[in-house]
Predict the structure.
Amino acid sequence: MKHFIAISDHSTDTLRHFLDVSKQLKHQLKTTGRNDHLLADKTLAMVFEKPSLRTRVSFAVAMTHLGGTGLLLRDEEVGLEKREPTRDVARVLASMCDGIMARVFEHSKLDILAKFSSVPVINALSDLSHPCQAMADLMTVEEHFGTLENKTLAYIGDGNNVARSLMVACGKFGVRFTIATPPGYQLPSADCDRIMQQVPAMDMVTTHDPMEAAHDADVLYTDTWVSMGQESEKQKRLQDFKGFCIDDKLIEVASKDAIIMHCLPAYRGYEIADSAMEHSGSLVFPQAENRLHFQKGLLACLMGGM
């Protein structure tokens, strides 16, 4: 499959290949200071409806390391379904570039880009999913523990796009996934049913008790309670999510070797305590760096034939 729209679209073998290539290229960079120019003279169109730090930097730097170019296209320049139809944008970009990366509000725009593009399309975040983030996260977990087998990831917080992608990724690699959300913020039952159909062997537990989810977990994971576009709900969300902060109490009930993860940006004192961000078990910043390495591996596979 030439696109990377959702983790569920790919077999575990394909996802494993993406991870292996990512780790290979990371090792090459760390040991030699450079990567082979697998994407020499190739261009990735980077479409941003939503601003980002890690997504923009990681894709642009990945293309540079591989000898190619990342072309930044802001929303006011592209205007999917505003300035022109998404299907027209897809065909124009595909005729001039070798790949398209899009960070959008509505997931449907990614589906249209993929349908009408003759070059690979990568989901760099949508309201439905964030597959590059989830794969970089599992890369981080595997690097730290040396394996993903018999590991439990506890997600504490909002049942959002990151949680949805993490659930699928964990299911694909046999990682036990527990999720604790306040009532009303859980992943829709239709989503859970669909994911269970896609990954029948998934080991998943849902709860409204963060202490239950964190008990003996190998990974404590959270995300912001107020995502972009939800600013008007901030005060209500802060009230509803009280007790769902990753703090010393949750760390105490997790595995003694547990690691702490956050996909950033983090709002210290809300979804994660400052002490947790700075904890010796925090891998928040190596996790952020691995966005570069996973996406580099993904680009090498989709656009470079790795």
Remarks:
- The chain has a mean pLDDT of 96.
- The chain has two domains: 7-129+291-304, 133-287.
